[in-house]
Design brief:
The structure holds two protein chains of two kinds. By secondary structure, chain A is mostly helical. Chain A is 46% helix and 11% strand. The chains are: A mainly alpha, B mainly alpha.
Chain lengths: 196, 135
Amino acid sequence: MTTAADHIDPAVRAEALASLLIERGLVDEAVMDNFIKTYEQSVGPMNGAKVVARAWTDPEYRGRLLADGTAAIAELGFKGPQGEHIVVLENTPDTHHVVVCTLCSCYPWPVLGLPPSWYKDPSYRSRIVREPRAVLAEFGLELGEDVAIRVFDSSSEVRYMVLPRRPAGTEGLSEEELAALVTRDAMVGVAEVAAP
Amino acid sequence: MSDPRGHADAAYLLDTSGPAAPPRDNGELVFGAPWESKAFGLALALTDAGLIDWEDFRQALIGEIGAWEAAHPTGAGWSYYDCWLRSLERVANAKGLVETGAVAARAAQLAALPPGHDHDAHDGHGGHDGHTHPS
């Protein structure tokens, strides 16, 4: 299914599509720019980090988060597109979770923002399912053979987020200090949270 | 590429070792070029306005990505947002918003503009070649 437009640089095609949609009054440029700005500057893994830190310090919140991720995340003010059905997967000493979208790039935007390039890459999307232990090792995460790895594939509805294990030696830290330790990669499941 | 950590640039390393920070603060660019952010913003704006259905768009994206992967077994030349843009063109055409021919005609018109004209066509040739957004 090849059209003439297929051979034109995507930068020009994007500009052409945008200019037509705006001229026809179908897209409001201010609305478009606001979406871009929001996901470039305001929505990102710092949201998810606050959710994780709250779950580490408040057992009741942790319970609500695991029971209904979307509702518990909304308690902290995080909601929006791609966040309608968030399921939180809790890592334990025995079980490690890692998230992928094998078909496209589904990702829990309200808590993690837009996905990094490697998450969208064909290589990650196919290999993490076939050989998760090897791929995690390439990310620098060497898990013991006694730790089960469970790979969760996002679907049309569900978006997964990993609740990483709280590192040892962080008992005295505040919720804010804990949030600063939590990385995006830990919430996708390709890393653990390191002790400070 | 065969290695998911094949992004051995400073931004990537900084991001994996540092705390979860706003995308622009941790050194990672959300978009590799201005046209990628435009393609992203258009899809959200059309969905927000109720003119396209996100699930239709997602299905089109799955189709484009699958077709690209089938045609490029080595993965060389991968551009996620190129697939995204093609999906958006397809859905916009199917919804009767913008005909594919109109996009091609406008693109040809824009491509013929003299260098220095203010549009995004001068950025993003090949994507990740060091362009950043104006801040």
